[in-house]
Amino acid sequence: MRKFFLSILLAAAVLLGEEYKAEPGAAPPAELADSVKSLLEKQGVKVLKDGKPLSEIWFRAELPPAKPSTEANLTMPGVPHGSLLGVIKVEQAYSDRRGQTFKPGLYTMRYSYYPENGDHQGAAPQRDFLLLSAAAADTDGAATPVFKELVEQSKKVSNTPHPCVFSIWKEDPKFFKEGSLEKVGEHDWVLMHKMGTVGVSLIVAGKVEA
To answer: For residue 36, which of 138, 184, 145, 177 has the smallest C-alpha distance?
Structure first.
């Protein structure tokens, strides 16, 4: 019995001790296509999990030119669907908020939002998110793939019927802290970063609440 309770305590300690931190990263990877690399900031943001490298993210230096949209419930309605907003290099086994795991590697992060057809009711207060695609196959930085095409690309990353999704939104200036990585709620770790003059928040680790 004593061993049982000790095991429970150790497991709880591991869960409570899981920490994420951000620190300055390196230049964008040389293997990226030039049309992708040219849109990114010159220095990435490295994310550490319990002191070990988890990923490195290179955000787009400036948001793409605004394109008027009539879509509802978007925090960045001027960003064209499918726009490249970043690149992520995954250093160890990773999972999105749905619990879908994907392998270490280099991935593009493109802006998307799901159709308002009733299939995603209650998924999130906003419809903005980033979908991951393999960087080796996504080489046109100016491309703006439609929703169906982008989902099919991302399903190859998750190897499930669902795309690999990272939640993102335009941040309220009152709560925005440039460069910070903070825990929000019980499960989510939010990285705050400016793309040009626009502050955005990205959940780099978390779990969808049931």
So the answer is: 138
